[in-house]
Write a structure and sequence with these properties.
The structure is a single chain. The chain is α/β, with parallel strands linked by helices. The strands form 4 sheets. Strands 3-4-14-9-10-13 form a 6-stranded mixed β-sheet, sandwiched between helices. Strands 8-5-6-7-15 form a 5-stranded parallel β-sheet, sandwiched between helices. Strands 1-2 form a two-stranded antiparallel ribbon. It has 20 helices and 15 strands. The chain has a domain at about 90-110 and about 225-425: 3-Layer(aba) Sandwich (Rossmann fold). It has helices at about 15-20, 40-45, 50-65, 70-80, 110-130, 145-150, 170-180, 195-205, 210-215, 225-245, 260-270, 285-295, 320-325, 330-345, 350-360, 365-380, 385-400, 420-425, 430-435, 450-465, and strands at about 5, 30, 90-95, 100, 135-140, 160-165, 185-190, 215-220, 250-255, 275-280, 295, 345, 360-365, 405-410, 445-450.
Length: about 475
C-alpha cells in the first residue's frame, strides 16, 4: 500500500511515513494510491466481528504489514479499552427507520476519541521504535484538542500544542483542554477563529525546514490515520442495522465542519460498503451545503452558532474529495487550490456537479431549527441530542425518504454543550468526569492569531526538557 499527495509531488510512501508526514510536504493531503476493494463475501464475514476485530481487518489493508499483526492488534486493544461501552460505538434505535450511532463513549465524550486514542498510541509506538521525540501540533474547533491531549498525555517522548479559538468553544470543551497541568502540553487560545488556527497550522507544516527540525507531527484530520480510524464505525453500524432490519439500503447523516467525518463515510463506500446516501449536515457556516447544491465552494462570513465544533468555513478534507472528483488528477487539484488561494472560491463544471449530487445530499441547519430538533426529540423519544447531532437529525429529516433507513452520527455527549441544551429549557445530569472539571485550575495562554508568535511559543515548548 502506497500513499500519494493530492497535489502530486509526494508519491509512493508507506503507512508509517504517511502518519509522520501528516500534511504532505507539497501542501497537499495524503491519500492511498489505490483504495482497497472489499468483496461482498468478505463483507459478510466482517459483519460478525467485534469492533476491535473489525478495526484490525480494515486497518490491515492500509498498514500492509508495516506493523506486525500482534503489535497492531495490541495497539487497537489498548486504544479502545478506554471506552465506557463494550461495543465502543453502539447503535441506538430512536424511532422507526431512524438510528443514532453513539460516538461519544470515549475519554472526552466526543467522536474524536475514536481516532485520537489510536493515533496517540501509534505515535507512542513509533517514538519507541525510532527513539525520536514527537512534537504534535493541532488546531481545534473544540473537540479535537481535548481528545488529542487525552490521547498522548503522559506518553514518553511526546509533546503537544493545541490552538483553539479564544471564547469560541463551549465551557466544557475549554475545561477539558486547559485543566491539564502537564509540562508537555501547551494550550494556546488564539484571538480569532478555528479557520485562523487551521491556516497557521498548515503554514507551519508547509515550512518543511521548521517541520523537520522539530519533528512536527499532525493530529488534525489532515493526518490520514484520523480518516482511516473513522471508517470503521461506518462498517460497524451498517452491519448492526442491516442485521436488525434485513435491508441492504442504509443512509448516513453526518454533522461535519472540516469534511473529515463525512469523507470517512465516502472512503468506506469506495471500499465497497453498500452505503446509499451520504447526507452532509452543516450549520450556518454552510460552505459545504452551497458546494453540494450549486457547485461553488466559497467561504462566507464566519458565524458563531449553537454547534461550535462545526463553526468552520474552510474544510481541510475537502481537497481529498476534490482529488477523487477530478479523476485523481493532481495537476487539476493543484491548479484549483491555487485558484482558491488567489480568488477565494472553487467552481466545478456541470458534469462534476452531477457527480457531487450523486455522492452527497446536504442541508444547512439554522440555529432555531437546531434547538427545535433537540426539544422535539427529547419530548417525543426522551433521547437528548447534542446540538451537532441535532443538526444531523434535522438534515436526516430534510433529505431522507420515510421508507429509507438512516443512521445519524451522534458526535458528542450533550453535557459538552450545556449552553445550547439550557436554551431548550432542558436540565441534564452531567457525567462525573465532566462535573469535576469545574473545580480545577486552568492552564492556557491567550495569543494573537500570528504564525510567528505561535512559532516562538512552539520553539520554547519543543526545546524544553520534559521529565
Amino acid at each position: 500500500m502506497n500513499f500519494v499527495s493530492t497535489r502530486g509531488n509526494v508519491s509512493k510512501i508507506g503507512f508509517i511515513d504517511t502518519v509522520l508526514m501528516g500534511l504532505a510536504n507539497d501542501g497537499g493531503l495524503l491519500v492511498p494510491e489505490k483504495i482497497p476493494q472489499i468483496p461482498a463475501e468478505k463483507l459478510k464475514a466482517m459483519s460478525q466481528l467485534t469492533y476491535q476485530e473489525l478495526a484490525y481487518e480494515i486497518f490491515s489493508y492500509y498498514v500492509d504489514g508495516e506493523i506486525p499483526e500482534d503489535e497492531l492488534k495490541s495497539l487497537i486493544k489498548k486504544s479502545y479499552a478506554t471506552f465506557r461501552h463494550p461495543e465502543v460505538t453502539p447503535v441506538k434505535k430512536v424511532k422507526e427507520n431512524m438510528y443514532v450511532l453513539e460516538l461519544f463513549h470515549g475519554p472526552t465524550f466526543a467522536f474524536k476519541d475514536i481516532a485520537l486514542q489510536f493515533l496517540g498510541n501509534l505515535y507512542s509506538y513509533v517514538a519507541k521504535k525510532t527513539g525520536e521525540s514527537i512534537n504534535i501540533l493541532g488546531a481545534t474547533s473544540g473537540d479535537t484538542g481535548a481528545s488529542a491531549i487525552e490521547g498522548v498525555r503522559g506518553k514518553e517522548g511526546i509533546r503537544i500544542c493545541i490552538l483553539h479559538p479564544y471564547g469560541k468553544v463551549s465551557k466544557v470543551q475549554e475545561l477539558q483542554m486547559t485543566t491539564v497541568n502537564d509540562k508537555s502540553v501547551l494550550n494556546l487560545a488564539i484571538k480569532g477563529t478555528f479557520d485562523d488556527g487551521q491556516r497557521i497550522i498548515k503554514e507551519l507544516f508547509a515550512d518543511v525546514e521548521f517541520k523537520n527540525k522539530y519533528h512536527l507531527r499532525a493530529i488534525n484530520s489532515i493526518n490520514f490515520v484520523r480518516i482511516l480510524a473513522q471508517t470503521v464505525y461506518y462498517f460497524y453500524s451498517y452491519f448492526q442495522v442491516t442485521k436488525e432490519k434485513g435491508t441492504k439500503k442504509v443512509n448516513f447523516s453526518v454533522p461535519t465542519g472540516n469534511f473529515g467525518d463525512i469523507f470517512a463515510g465516502y472512503l468506506a463506500k469506495k471500499m465497497g460498503l453498500p452505503v446509499d446516501k451520504l447526507i452532509v449536515a452543516t450549520n450556518e457556516n454552510n460552505i459545504l451545503e452551497g458546494f453540494i447544491h450549486d457547485g461553488v465552494y466559497k467561504p462566507g462570513e464566519f458565524r458563531s452558532t449553537y454547534s461550535p465544533s462545526m463553526d468552520i468555513q474552510v474544510a481541510s478534507n475537502f481537497e481529498r474529495y476534490l482529488y477523487y472528483l477530478l479523476g485523481e488528477n493532481p495537476k487539476e487539484v493543484s491548479d484549483l487550490m491555487e485558484k482558491f488561494k488567489s480568488e477565494g472560491k472553487i467552481v466545478v463544471n456541470e458534469e462534476q456537479l452531477r457527480q457531487v449530487k450523486e455522492d452527497f445530499a446536504a442541508h444547512g441547519v439554522e440555529g432555531e431549527e437546531c434547538l427545535q430538533t433537540i426539544s422535539k426529540y427529547y419530548a417525543e423519544t426522551s433521547y437528548l441530542l447534542d446540538p451537532h447531532t441535532a443538526c444531523g437529525v434535522a438534515a436526516y429529516e430534510r433529505c431522507n425518504e420515510l421508507d429509507e433507513v438512516c443512521i445519524t452520527l451522534a458526535t458528542a455527549h450533550p453535557a459538552k454543550f450545556n449552553e445550547s441544551i439550557e436554551r431548550c429549557h432542558i436540565n441534564q445530569t452531567f457525567p462525573e468526569q465532566i462535573s469535576q472539571l469545574f473545580d480545577r485550575p486552568q492552564y492556557q495562554e491567550v495569543v494573537e492569531a500570528d504564525k510567528d508568535e505561535i512559532a516562538r511559543k512552539l520553539e520554547r515548548l519543543f526545546n524544553s526538557s520534559v521529565k
